[in-house]
Here is the input.
Amino acid sequence: MSEPREQIQSSVKALDQLPQSKVIQCSRYYQSKPMGPQDQADYVNAVVALETELSAQNLLTHTQAVEQTHGRVRKAHRWGPRTLDIDILLFGQRVLSTPELTIPHYGMKEREFVLYPLFEIAADLVLPDGESIADLVALCPKNGLSVMEN
Here is the structure.
């Protein structure tokens, strides 16, 4: 499966089928310029609100399994082409830093392709450090980010 929209639709269904978990909401799809090397296709992004009883570490294990099922191969270099990249942005108001997982996601405050779809589904969200998603979006340029047509 190489079509980005289909990858996202299929992965959202897979997330909804995780044990003790349910997808609550999914943003529209956004197209953005790739991070890192620009000689790759634009990215397609979405943010999903997931209600789960899983631990953060267990959720990471499951999301990585979903990535693998969708053809993700982890490579030594970052920001290259890939079929699917599922990041855990937030886990309620918890703050976590382990070798495998940092929550809130370390780069989310600077990434338009994270902030705008997150704002779409959680406009009143306040991060664990007290910053509001609305304030972050107001300071973040779109950098060519656009909502994709259905």
